[in-house]
């Protein structure tokens, strides 16, 4: 029976979260908004419009949202050639693929940004499919990105795990009835990830790879064998 390992990308496989914080901070500043970096960091993982709404509030002039979002895209693009994978990120994808897992990426990135991330991770040979912001109506924490990833893999929720670094990732996994595994590499605390639904939390992809045999991923593997 097939199994699917669905991965978020930013902060989970690629060391990009603080680049995003910098780009968002400057985008807000250019539009005349003072937003603290800590608040931006907590909102990472939300779709862009939800992120802007969370940080500027419902009473903002929404006519300015597009300018902030566009500025972030332009500013973040200047980092594309400096994106780096997190420690052993390609290895954990290949280990799972070689063990019979379908590896699917579920990310809010799209277009050139997604291409830059995949280039940096350099593990396309291990990736079965990718779902991006272009493929869903609602982003995380809604379950749709995870559900779409499972559709692409042809795998049921009880045969899947979702690995991510944000509260929104864990909430999306819970809403999709998928086991959530959290990574600290995005900068969110263990307690926050567990409160949001993480079944287990690891430091980074390297730590997850080292402990695969005792992880919730192995539990799904054992259910397959029993």
Automatic annotation (TrEMBL):
It comes from the Bacteria. This is HAD family hydrolase. Its EC number is 3.-.-.-. It comes from Streptomyces achmelvichensis. Keywords: Hydrolase.
């Amino acid at each position: 029976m097939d199994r699917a390992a669905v991965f978020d990308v930013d902060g989970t496989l690629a060391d990009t979260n603080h680049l995003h914080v910098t780009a968002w901070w400057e985008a807000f500043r250019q539009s005349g908004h003072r937003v603290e970096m800590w608040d931006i960091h907590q909102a990472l993982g939300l779709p862009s419009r939800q992120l802007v709404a969370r940080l500027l509030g419902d009473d903002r002039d929404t006519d300015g949202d597009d300018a902030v979002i566009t500025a972030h895209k332009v500013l973040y693009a200047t980092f594309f050639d400096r994106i780096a994978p997190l420690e052993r990120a390609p290895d954990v994808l290949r280990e799972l693929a070689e063990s019979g897992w379908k590896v699917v990426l579920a990310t809010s990135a799209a277009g050139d940004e997604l291409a830059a991330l995949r280039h940096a991770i350099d593990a396309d040979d291990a990736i079965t499919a990718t779902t991006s912001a272009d493929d869903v109506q609602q982003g995380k924490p809604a379950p749709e990105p995870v559900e779409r990833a499972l559709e692409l893999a042809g795998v049921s929720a009880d045969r899947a795990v979702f690995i991510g670094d944000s509260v929104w990732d864990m909430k999306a996994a819970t809403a999709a009835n998928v086991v959530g595994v959290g990574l600290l590499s995005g900068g969110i605390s263990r307690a926050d990830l567990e409160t949001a639904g993480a079944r287990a939390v690891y430091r980074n992809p390297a730590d997850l790879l080292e402990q695969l045999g005792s992880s919730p991923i192995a539990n799904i593997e054992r259910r397959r064998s029993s």
